[in-house]
Amino acid sequence: MEKRLTFAYGRTLVTSRIFVLASLAVLAAILITLTSSPISAVLGLAALLAAYLVLFTLSPLLTEHWITRSRLILRQGWYFRAVLPFSVIEELQAADDAIAFRTPLGISRPFGQPVLFVTGGRTNLVRVRLQRPRRFWQAFGLSASEIVFDVTDRAGFLAAFEERRRLLPPVQTDRSRPELRD
C-alpha cells in the first residue's frame, strides 16, 4: 500500500488570482508611465507583484491534499496546511448542501458559521466534521468544527479515505498532549 495518496483540488481560485494580478500589473504600468516614479519605487512594486505571483498564484498549483495511513492533510498553496489525524475526524462526507453556504473561494471562515472553507473551486466539495472545534491561524485564529474543501475526484477521495480508515488504528503516543503535534 502506498504511504500517501494525493488528490488535486480545483483551479478556479488560481484563475481569478491571475486575473487580479494582471489587472494590478496593468494599473501599475499606467501609473508608472503617467508619473515620474523613481526606479526604486518601480522595482519595489515589481518585487511586490512577483511575490504575490509566487505565493498566491503559483504555490496553489504545486500542492495537493494527502491521505496518509493515519492522517488527512489539507493543503492550499504554501500558506495553508492542516493535519487531521483520523482519530479527530468525526465524519467525512460529500458536501452537496454546501451551496446553501454560498461557498467562497480560498480560505474563509465566515462569522457566525463554525465552518472553515479551504476551496479552490465550487464543485466536488467534501465536508469534514471534527470531534471538537479547532483553531486555525490561517483564519486569524478563529475556531471551526467543520472544514469544507474541494477535490477533483471526490468519489475516489471518499473511497480512499474509507479504505485507509478501515486499516489498523495507529499506535497512540504516550507523551502528554499528543494533539499538539500539528
Question: Short summary of the structure?
Answer:
The chain has 182 residues and is of the alpha+beta class. It is built from 3 helices and 9 strands.
Task: Please describe what this structure looks like.
The protein is an alpha+beta fold and 182 residues long. It folds into 2 domains: 10-61; 65-181, no CATH class. The chain has helices at 12-34, 39-58, 154-166, and strands spanning 4-7, 65-68, 71-76, 80-85, 89-94, 106-108, 115-119, 125-135, 143-150.
Order of helices and strands: EHHEEEEEEEEH
- The stretches of 5 or more residues where confidence is low (pLDDT under 50) are none
Structural class of the secondary elements?
alpha+beta
**Residue-averaged pLDDT:** 84
Total helices: the number is: 3
Helical content class: 25-40%
Spatial order of the strands forming the largest sheet: 5-8-9-7-6
What portion of residues belong to β-strands? 25-35%
- The overall number of domains is 2
How far do the termini sit from each other?
24 Å
